[in-house]
Amino acid sequence: MPDPLVLPRSPRRRGAVARSDTWWGRAFVRSFEELALDVGDLVAARSLARSGRFGAIVVLEAMASAVVDPGSEQPLMSQLKVERLDAADWTTFAREAARESGFTAALEVGTLPVDLVEHADEAGVEVLPGTPDLDSACECDAWAQPCVHALALLYLLAWHVDRDPYVLLLLRGRTREALLGEVHALAAAEADDTGAAEREAARVRAAQVLALAADAPTGHGLADATVAAYDEAVTRLL
């Protein structure tokens, strides 16, 4: 298992954790806001997320946790679990990313192209978690989940997801290194296959030219219909 990703606290300023600037950040926020039992819980959760009461967030593959009021007499741990994509799903996603150099370049600089996600979705892989993919737990005495603490943790995660989509991909079960490694391997394999196909096509053409040369007609230049037909056949192969 890779080392956990430890995320620092987000800035304590109004709106810092309630607004997303990227399409994937907004999509992540929509996915968990639909879980709230009451709009008032979302308001309270945003306020708690901005309060600075959370410690660092620890993110592992398909899960995250943080402590509310660490160091106090009554700290609370809040946890999030996310449905993990399996290896076959990640291979499908990586294959879609490897098809276009622009997708690979975007992933390398830390952005998530919407077209890539849509292509993966068409291939049967939903990278963005939906409401059923999210589950939470908390040490508080709330009778239902997600509680305000869990929602606040989700808002904090959304702040980090907005700035680094690899936080989101890690929550789905894949590290940056593992994903990019598979994308590069698939791109290299596809390039090798393309090169091999081109070399084989060239070999076949060369063999056909040699076969034609062996049976080259003798005549009197282009005025001779047989020679002209031969020249045309060779030209098509070259």
TrEMBL record:
Coiled-coil segments: none
Keywords: Metal-binding, Zinc, Zinc-finger
Source species, domain of life: Bacteria
InterPro entries tied to this protein: Znf_SWIM
GO molecular function terms attached to this record: zinc ion binding
Domain called SWIM-type: residue spans: 123-158
Keyword match Transferase: no
Record has Nucleotide-binding as a keyword: no
Protein name: SWIM-type domain-containing protein
Species per Swiss-Prot/TrEMBL record: Nocardioides aurantiacus
